[in-house]
Write the structure tokens for this entry.
Amino acid sequence: MTTLEGCRCRGAAASARGSSSSSILYSILKSDNMALHQHKTFSSSCSSSSIITSPSSPPSSAAPLPAAPLQLHHHEAAACSCRDSTRRRRRGTLRAPQVTCKAASAVLVKTLRFVKSVPCFRELPDGDQLALVRSGWAALLVLGLAQDRVDFETAESAAEPSLLQRILTAGAADGAAAAAEPGSGGGGRAEVCLVDIQAIKAFLRRCWSLDVSTKEYAYLKGAVLFNPDVEGLRCLHYIQSLRRESHQALNEHVKLARHEDATRFAKLLIALSLLRAIGPAVVAQLFFTPVIGSVDMEEVLMEMFYGK
């Protein structure tokens, strides 16, 4: 493992701007090929290009509304809040947890193998590697589920009662205990909020409807893995350049391979934003808790990643 001095993070941003990024991007693609074991080899030569970004929304300049409409909007907002609270209490479980968890575990192993095989990642200090894995494992796993077309069925469980209902039906003491353990389901089942399950399935459907290619998945993985927003990174500027190059390579590939669809790059970025809204706790609760129980996923990841 190389140290900070060997990771090229000093002056990496200038190097990324002044030279071709083909070696870094090719290593990402080659690593993904090795991890999947069935795709053809290919070469990557992507020239630097500007990243397409969405313009920020202009500030609202609407005139103040009359008192009556404001009061109406207030009641509507309160009603929406109540409906959202009800939706958040609806929970679901996997219909076939053994099958789904086995498939998810296989994808996780393949995902960590891919991460370890990326030369740019191996050049980072140990602390940065650990931080990036902790931050990105869940999103990378869901990306892998989409790439391997792993689908799953869920069943809605009984709605989680409100705190008031618990107190009225089970007594104040029992209600307080139940409030301390939300979503336990009473039988140790791994129940997940239906809204979160629908978010995962929406991302999977988005990728499948776009028919994301192997190269596009590789570039998306690079954009997820090299996350400069993680706190405490020592090679922050180098990781920023890797994220930037992943976006640029994805844009260049789309222009060449999908030139008939001028909006495809934007569609992929929208899909990526959906992925980043899925939390690691939800992924662990849905795909691993039904089989291995409530364990520390970080310990599992470190054991799998470092072989400890």
Q: What stands out?
A: Confidence is low (pLDDT under 50) at residues 1-6, 10-25, 37-83, 175-188. Residues 31 and 117 are 5 Å apart (CA to CA). The first helix runs from residue 12 to 18.
